[in-house]
Amino acid sequence: MKTFLKIIAVFIIGIAGGIFAEQILWPYLSKNPFFSQYLSPVSNPAQLPSKVVEKREIIIEENTALQDAVEKVERVVVGIKTKTRTGKTIYGSGLIVTSDGLVITLAELVPQGESFAFFIDGETPKYQILKRDLKNNLALVKIEGADFQTCGFADFGKTRLGERVFLLGTVFQEVNRPSKTVNEGIVKFFNDEYIQTNIFEKNNLRGSPLFNIRGELIGLNTIDEEERVFSIPITKIRDFIGL
User: Is 80 exceeded by the pLDDT of residue 176?
Assistant: First the structure.
């Protein structure tokens, strides 16, 4: 019992000594010029530098790049509405390629002898069909106006399998009020003749442009009977329009 009491007494004296040293003795010695010259700057444990570990959590929004690219090219997409002599209405899209109003689209959307309307920012400007390439299914149109927004062309040589891409087209939910729609996917296969994506869409999005994630034009979309999206490569488009 006496041994236990001695242990408790030593413990209490140790605590009291520590408190006395930190609260009374150390402040006195550190202020006394005679003693302070012998004290190390880190002699007081309370003044030891603490190691601060800053933890930063970086959250990457996967869709930010896509949203930025869509905003970048949204105004270059043109809505197309064609009324045939048989009473059929064809819907599709096209792309402004020059600031003075050259538009590229599919030849199948502007068949010869039919009536067309091009929708840009709520307007339907006058137009002229400059040429058609039925073999490659391309048509070049000149619309009235100036200072149109345009986009950059991708370097087709840098296209890669699995590259992230998106199409941006117009849909006519109301008769004469087209709105924009987006779909994304990857490059599934490509060669000099066509680009195959893993995107599926309705055929009213024919003529919509295909962009890479930087907002550069890769191709112009066609859609087969199974609603698979294929694109005419930018190389063929550039050869056709002479840019």
Answer: no
